[in-house]
Amino acid sequence: MASALVVSMMIALTPASTLALDAASPAPSPPSVASAAAPPAPTATGSWLGLVLGESSRMVRSTLGKPLEILTTSAGDLWRYDYDNRNVGLELLFDQDQLVNIAARVKPSKQSALTDPYGGALGLSAAALQSARGTPIATYDSGASIAYGAPDGVRWFYAIDSGVVSAIEESKPLPPPSPPAQVVADATHDGSSIAKALIVDASNDADAVNAEYVYIRGLECGVSGTWQVTTQRLIAQGGRYYDQLHAACKNSMLERDFYFDITQSYGH
Mean pLDDT, the chain, as a whole number? Predict the structure, then answer.
């Protein structure tokens, strides 16, 4: 079972006329599948135990070697090591192949004075910890876990057992991914004109274009036919931005334009 401290803390931490800008040009090949952009890595912090939050599993392996155990949890992949002459159990949590959590816990009947960069240490009394670190930003479970924040957004958690620090945890989860792009179509937005342009809900240009192609490919034309985009251009009008996609039906002579309002994602 994954460490309750690691998983629970991750969850707890768990955002004027029409102006044609581009002349009509051959449409690019329709993207087959949207490529999810890699989420931004956590801001690199100072090294602790030779590790830096945000580094890849490959870098961690080059530092610590092969883990004793790898577990799949709801928060990510959990790697386990022995540390400090086997007095400490080290647990590392990876989200999308980035190190987001480091937890060092004293093993039962063992002792360790492992320290962190802020003066906290395993075996330190709760009073001495607060003397070294100051007032915590939060406490959990009636003082069984104490949390501190760093300027770079990293959180430090200290588990207190019998009045002394039994575990230290450094954590900075990845930001949540952007929601998938989608095309909003209704009675007043059928894509037949700029006035009725389909609304594209996307966070960047690439996702917006991909959503447009996916939408058009999903429409039937003629008798069980599908649309194929032949040209595409960008239009600015009234302070908003639109994609005009011209498409032809594969099994008939039908042709038409589709208009998409891409103002939300334009330039991103």
Answer: 84
How many CB atoms within 10 Å of residue 147?
18
Angle, vertex CA 76, rays to CA 72 and CA 77, nearest 5: 50
Could you say which of 139, 171, 203 is where a domain stops? Answer: 171
* Tokens 């575990």 sit on residue: 167
Q: Residues 158-187: what's their mean pLDDT?
A: 88
The predicted pLDDT at position 46 comes to: 65
How far apart, in whole angstroms, are the C-alpha atoms of residue 31 and residue 211? 9
Q: Supply the pTM of this predicted model.
A: 0.56
Give the list of residues 6+ apart from residue 57 with CB closer than 8 angstroms, or none.
77, 79, 94, 97, 99
Domain that holds residue 59: 39-171
Which residues, other chains included, contact 172 with Cβ-Cβ below 8 Å and sequence gap of 6+? 42, 43, 45, 53, 54, 100, 101, 152, 153, 154, 155
Closest CA to 110 of 98, 122, 93, 125: 122
User: Residue 10 has what pLDDT?
Assistant: 47
State the DSSP string of 78-91: EEEEEETTTTEEEE
List, in sequence order, every residue forming a beta bridge with 56; answer none if it has no partner.
98
- Same domain flag for 153 and 198: no
Contact 55, 64 (CB under 8 A): no
pLDDT greater at residue 85 or residue 11? 85
* pLDDT of 157 above 60: yes
- DSSP single-letter state for residue 37: P
The SS3 of residue 265 is coil
Report how far apart, in Å, the C-alpha atoms of 202 and of each of 50, 113, 210, 244 are.
39, 50, 10, 17
Give Cβ neighbours of residue 216 (< 8 Å, ≥ 6 apart): 227, 229, 245, 247, 258
Instruction: DSSP letter for 173, please.
Output: P
In a domain, 4, yes or no: no
